Amino acid sequence: SLPAFDELQRALLAGEAAQVRYAIRDPELGQRWLLTRVAPRTEGGAPSVVTLDVTEQERSRARTEELLRELSSILDSSSAGIAFLRGNTLVRCNRSFERFLGISAGGVAGASLRELFSSQPQACAVADDAELALLESGVYETEIEIVLPQRAPQWVSLAARRIGPPGPAAEVVAVLSDVTRLK
To answer: What are the Cα distances from residue 77, in Å, to 96, 109, 173?
Structure first.
């Protein structure tokens, strides 16, 4: 965080506005994270400086990032396709979900259910049915055939669950599993 601290020093010397987050090492407390805000000088006055100890926020942010990395590793190693949607929009999915739909890595965030299944005529109707069922009961399950170029047809089980109350921003977890052998 030395560059951030240097930025703070420059702002103080120039009397310019700045907001900087940086780490310090306290002899008794160990590493602490501080957030300093500098308001510009007023005519003839000194700049206003406020410093807050944001160590707990920084620890929480770092822990959240670590948990997200761990969870992403777990989900990406799963053979099931797993997706998280908010409303009708895909927020995040694992690689298996992309492979099931024949979509390039990272190419689906922000897509609607209908867009995700647009290359599968049978699945477009499923997207409409899923939206209605999730709104009404919060649960939707079906099996559909996915046909992709240069691949044998594949049957997948789609299970979707709404998390929380219904509404335009309802959150949904969807799981695709290969059931071709069972068919």
So the answer is: 8, 19, 17
Strand locations in the chain (E): 18-26, 30-39, 48-53, 81-86, 89-93, 139-146, 154-163, 171-178
The CA distance from 31 to 61, in Å, is 15
- The span from the CA of 88 to the CA of 107, in Å, is 16
To the question of pTM greater than 0.85 for the whole model, the response is: no
**Per-residue pLDDT at 140:** 93
Rounded CA-CA distance 3/10 in Å is 11
Give 10-residue mean pLDDT values along the chain (183 residues).
86 86 93 92 79 95 92 86 89 88 76 78 77 88 85 90 87 93 83
Tell me which residue has tokens 């510009």. 40
